[in-house]
Amino acid sequence: MKLEITPNQYFSLASVTTKKIGIVKCIISVDTHSQNTLTKQVIEQLYPDALLSGSGTYSREEFLDAVNLLGASIDIDVTDARVSFILRTTSEALPKLLRLFAAMIQEPMFAHKELKRVKAVTLNQLQQAKEDSRAIAHEKLRNNFYGAADRKYSYSIDECIETVPRVTTTQLRKFHKQVVENNWFCSIGGEAAAVKIFATEMKKLKHDGNVSEGTHQPKPPKPNLSLENIPSRQNIDLSIGVPLPITRSHPDYIPLAFAIAVLGKVGGFAGRLMSTIREKEGLTYGIYSQLEGFASQEQGYFRITTFFSPVNTVQGLKSTFREIKKLHTHGVSHAEVDAFKTILATQQSFVKDSFTRTLADLHNYHYEGFTVQEMHAYKRALCDVKKADINRVIKTYLDPVHMSVSGAGPVKDVQKDVRNWFESVS
Amino acid sequence: MSKKSTPKNVPGYTFVKTAAGIDEFVLKSNGLRVLYHYRPDTEVVTTNITYLVGSADEQLGKSGIAHMLEHMLFKPTRADKQAKITNGSAMKFELETGCLLNANTGKDRTTYFFSYPTEHMQTALKIEAQRMTDVILNQKVLTPEQGNVLSEFDMYNGDPYFALSVQMVSTAFLSHPYGHEIIGYREDIEDFTAQRLQQFYTDYYRPDNAVMMVIGDIDKKEALEAVKKQFGAIKNPATAIPRHDIREPKQEGLRRVSIERNSSTDILSIGFKHAGMGTTQWLTTLVMLTVLTDGPESIFEKLLVDTGKVASIDSAQEPTKDTNLAIIHFTLAPNQNHGEIEKIVLETIQNLTVTDVAQLIKKTKARIRTDELFARTSSMQIAQELTEYTASGDWANYNQTLPILKKITPKTVVDCMHQSFTTNNLTIGTFIGK
User: Fold this and answer.
1) Which residue of A has its CA nearest to B312?
2) Inter-chain CB proximity A353 and B42 less than 8 Å
3) In terms of C-beta density within 10 A (0-12 exposed, 13-18 middle, 19 or more buried), how is residue A165 classed?
4) Complex confidence, ipTM
5) Which SS3 state, helix, strand or coil, does residue A261 take?
6) By CA distance, what is B365's nearest residue in A?
7) What beta strand segments (E) does B138-185 contain?
């Protein structure tokens, strides 16, 4: 597979050129963050369905029919103000799919009738989200770290439900204009001919490009406990973490990413949290840690995600904090540094096993402004990190007394005990 | 000689067949089946061993034992203990190499896999061979793992769709073991003993009940020799593999079940029995479910989601060997009534004609063809799909999706619809939020 990233005037193009495989996947991402507001958050929820609801000469039905007859798909995802279009098709059908994509981008209808339908569907989905304990625990944690203008802040489901009826087609069109005008990060995985077709179509489609200047509003770190009772669940979902005052470009990011992998590498059993709290103590099915929400120019946060049964929650939290404290006090060992250098290097090699995984990996680096050379250098740096640097950043950033805890689930019977425990550690 | 054209005559093996670039061999010494597929230039190999034992092989009061045992295979073996590997070889292998490892249990099979850079294949196979016979099963190792499995059970059971599905399959099947979910009942999990697990392990974990898949950037001869080296000396027990031979009694009339919970969720679930995987009818059912429920163009998304009556629709059709229950979940919008939605759904299905669905079927078939190509772009995905075909009877059906798809017509799908949604085939569940 050949990997390339080529800058253009209004968009950049990354490609994974494969041998003959007969299929193509394209990802086009746009950052739309300016200032988070309740209305903008709701528009982002309505936008994917609204945009797929008719374009140019196509009604919604005709548009969906045309895409599906190709055996293809166009999916739209909006997460933290980043809009991504994901196209999947056979190589043969790519030109037709790109024409449909162009119609959707250039001539969206945003018809009143369709908006009414999209709103009704979205309102029902929001009602359903009220019992999503994992998402609620995560959102509450982030709201403790960021102000309302930040992209990582989430307005409550009830606030969103109140706002949905007030969104207008004019507001949706304005948001779409921003999507069209901001810089695009386009990536494709497929055969050489498909890469060429995609590059040509993107050039035709993109005539301007703006860089989005967004408001970032990190709050000063303050440990906080938030608990939300959702009686229908059986486990209490937990997000535990702390905001970090560095961006992905900061020299401390790489040693910190390494430290977090030692603590709770996502997937498998190698991290300390899985090997102790799950394997030795049998307190949870899964417990992982990672750095989230970072960008080259944007600070992010550290988060542990897990769940415990109500009866095990206090013990589970104690064990989790014991592991963070152990890491903070003693740092990582030489043996761990050696082991995780191999683990992280092997993880990088797995992308070669799948062109879609290679594409997803390349697209993420591409979106962060990396060249292919910089991506390789970054991956090498992650495996060349020094133990002293890892332990220094652990001391600087991962003191358990600064951690916040957010839980959602059947907390009613244990919240007093959890509060007492939290007061004793923060 | 290229890697692909390595001869089929490999010492110690009997060659069985080739399909879709996959070769099947049987190890002469003990009957272990080996599937090999070459994927050049990836530098990665996935080895996947599938034991033909799952929750369908469990007895009353021992539900979930196949899944519990799956967890125990990550614990130390006797050889690990001698070598003072306290966390078990599989975990040590992950720490030393960064391999991907996991396992999963189905109704007809239990599967363990490693994915790793090619040079680690011998170690991966050695670990897999050791844990086929050598895992230590005692109460001291079992108790903490029971806690993890109970945590997993609670994770699933907190999901109203799962909780309702458990009740629905137990209502749909009176005697067939598909009538309990893979993870089992909480009470059974709490009562597991090391002795019970040991018996299950001895009964089913043996070479003649396993299929080893080697998929990736590795020479065929080298792969087969490595498998022979690690597994060749393992003997099968003299006893036969215990199998249930149960025929489900004929269903007479509609079956219903209901759950009430402190929740804001209301669900109507409609289950229907369908034929096992690998058959034309299984794939026809998949096409039918897609047409009815999957995506904005589907019959019920348009009829119920777009009109605000239902918040979302999900459907599940498990890849099993025997007749199983597929379920469509309709999550009701606020102030909607289970009975009214049920009436709309069943009446709509009864009235659907070939003309109503012909175009949708054409599109669904096109989508399945594309999905099939995407599903075969990594060694782990290939292993996963092969696993399901292997457990359902014949791995070579992996190559049959497109030929079968060609035979499926709007008429066969409509016929399937009308036969599936009859009172003698339906189990209806309601989740009532209080």
Assistant:
1) A125
2) yes
3) exposed
4) 0.92
5) helix
6) A71
7) none
Residues of A with CB below 8 A from B145's CB? 282
Average pLDDT value for chain A? 95
| pLDDT tens string A408-418 | 999 999 999 99
Q: Rounded to the nearest 10 degrees, how much is the dihedral formed by the CA atoms of A53, A59, A61, A67?
A: -80
Kindly report the pTM of this predicted structure: 0.94
The domains located in chain B, with CATH, are 13-231 (3.30.830.10), 255-433 (3.30.830.10)
What percent of chain A is predicted at pLDDT more than 90?
A: 92
Q: State how far residue A267 is from chain B, nearest Cα, in angstroms.
A: 8
CB contacts under 8 A, A 158-217 vs B, are none
CA dist., res. B196 & res. A224, Å (int): 46
The model's pLDDT over B37-76, given as tens digits with 9 standing for 90+, comes to: 999 989 999 999 999 999 999 999 999 999 999 999 999 9
Please check whether residue B313 is in contact with residue B269, taking contact to mean a CB–CB distance below 8 angstroms.
no
Chain A interface test: which of B378, B401, B432 (most A C-beta within 10 Å): B378
| Mean pLDDT estimate for chain B | 95
How many interface pairs between A and B have CB atoms less than 8 angstroms apart? 178
Residue type, position A135, single letter = A
**What is the secondary structure of B359-408 as a DSSP string?**
HHHHHHHHHHHHHHHHTTSSHHHHHHHHHHHHHTT-GGGGG-HHHHHHH-
User: Helix, strand or coil for residue B241?
Assistant: coil
Residue B1 confidence (pLDDT) above 50: no
Mean of pLDDT values over A318-336: 98
